[in-house]
Amino acid sequence: MRFETETIAAIATAMSNSGIGIIRISGDEAINIADKIFKSVKIGKTLNDVKSHTIHFGHIVDGDNVLDEVLVSVMRGPNTYTCEDVVEINCHGGVVVLKKVLGLILKNGARPADAGEFTKRAFLNGRIDLSQAEAVIDVINAKNEYALSNSVSQLKGGISAKIKEIRDSILNEIAFIEAALDDPEHMSLDGYDDKLCSITKNIIDELNKLIKASDNGRVISEGIKTVILGKPNAGKSSFLNAVVGTDRAIVTDIAGTTRDTLEEHINIDGISLNIIDTAGIRDTSDVVESIGVKKAKDLAIDADLIIYIIDSSKELDDNDKDIMEIIKGRKAIVLFNKSDLETKVTREDIAIDDNIPVINISAKNQTGITEFEESIKDMFFNGELEFNDEVFITNARQKNDISQAYESMKLVLNSVEAAMPEDFYTIDLMNAYELLGRVVGEAIEDDLVDKIFSKFCMGK
After folding, report:
1. Residues near 192 by Cβ (< 8 Å), separated by ≥ 6?
2. Cα–Cα distance between 351 and 25 in angstroms, integer?
3. Which residues are bridge partners to 360 per DSSP?
4. pLDDT single digits (tens) 386-430
5. Which CB contacts under 8 angstroms, 24+ apart, belong to 157-162?
6. Where are the beta strands (DSSP E) in 27-96?
7. 92 pairs with which residues across the strands?
8. Do the Cβ atoms of 360 and 312 come closer than 8 Å?
9. CB neighbours of 305 closer than 8 A, spacing ≥ 6?
């Protein structure tokens, strides 16, 4: 095992030629190591003598060889990202020079940082909790402005504050029950069941809100899993090309051109859609095409949104009835394509829920696309997504622990309603308390911590 007291270093910017590249050093020897290789333009000035959180101009030198002209930031712990002494060397952003400077730092006593080790040290040193640490990688990987806003909210402690509030409430009840059982002469449990029942119901409601919000959180962070369905030649590939803004899919007049799936990521006013074009759904004896049809139906089962495209210039048939069965009870948008031609289909002709939007479009002429985009926003975020004080769980690990805590609190409620002895309450209360502690990184296994931070990039 590596010791957390070792001084670590890594390139913190992307490994590509750029204007500026940053090398980060953290640990007890960070300033001493930097001092060995940095020569200030001010004669006699060393990094060990400078004030914290200051920047200094000079050169990185290897003996008499000057490697680069740099700016060096010196930050002394504990008021740093890792709570340790941190030095950041701002070099010119060439890959060769960055590697040479990093190699010189390692030669003078640092070791290469593991993936995510700087943030891991921030967590281990108590600067941030685990939910905030996971928000760091979410900020880096954010695919849209909503995902970024939610991740920044988590980084500021949005989830932490809510979890802490619930845990404090649970802990207060555990402490009261234990104290009353130990000292029944001075602390009475008479009538306590009603109070605990009310508190437990409130906690269950709060946990349930977090769990339900996780669906929106997943959509925010990962994007809306969207599947396009329709008969062959309905215009599915033309529609995909229209919303992507390029000829991504092959379009011909030959029915059944699309036989496999085609995936594309698009952004609509900050909302991400992971959109999948599928084979046209119809009865067919073609073995390859039938595989594509089955795949389309399977993908529709797991979709967050189904876009059903109808060629409105042609009458409906049994294949359309099959598609309508698939979208029953699902989030869907129906698009009447080829609306520039004579229309032979109306809303009354399709057996769908009244709340499913039906929009006239022409993929060829790119009309109706704006109305489609507005429907997406209305369907998922009521036309507007604001965060304010709402907490969105975007992490599957966090959702799992919160869900288990929710089940434990339901057991507490069952015990109270069944008039079980009070010491039964504390078992499930403590279990819920510990499960919520896992969300913020208390009482969590070392191997899970290592697994979480292994997903980070180097230098973060």
Report:
1. 176, 177, 180, 422
2. 64
3. 336
4. 444 455 676 778 889 999 999 999 999 999 988 888 888 899 999
5. 157/129, 157/132, 158/389, 158/391, 159/131, 159/132, 159/135, 159/391, 159/393, 159/398, 159/439, 159/440, 160/129, 160/131, 160/132, 160/440, 162/206, 162/210, 162/391
6. 38-40, 54-62, 65-75, 86-93
7. 20
8. yes
9. 224, 225, 226, 227, 273, 331, 332, 333, 376, 379, 380
| pLDDT number for residue 27 | 95
pLDDT at position 254: 40
Q: What is the mean pLDDT of the chain?
A: 82
- Tens of pLDDT, residue by residue over 44-64, are 789 999 999 999 999 999 989
Q: What is the three-class DSSP state of 11?
A: strand
In the predicted model, is pLDDT for residue 153 greater than 70?
Answer: no
Angstrom distance (rounded) from CA 28 to CA 38 = 17
**Among candidate residues 279, 282, 333, 280, the one with its CA nearest the CA of residue 303:** 333
Residue found by looking up tokens 């108590």 in the block: 126
Taken as a whole, the chain contains a residue count of 460
pLDDT value at 3 more than 70: no
Structure tokens at 458: 């180097």
Q: Which amino acid is at 77?
A: G
The answer, as to whether pTM is greater than 0.70, is: no
Identity of the residue numbered 305: L
Distances (CA, A) of 314 to 45, 232, 258, 345: 82, 12, 20, 7
- Per DSSP, 114 falls in state P
> What's the rounded Cα separation, in Å, for the pair 399 and 393?
7
Q: Is 59 left (phi over 0), alpha (psi -120 to 50) or beta?
A: beta
Q: Give 320's pLDDT tier (boundaries 50, 70, 90).
A: confident
- Rounded to whole angstroms, the Cα distance separating 352 from 349 reads 9
CA distances to 100, 202, 231, 277 from 106, in Å:
10, 54, 61, 50
Q: Are 50 and 56 within 8 A, CB to CB?
A: yes
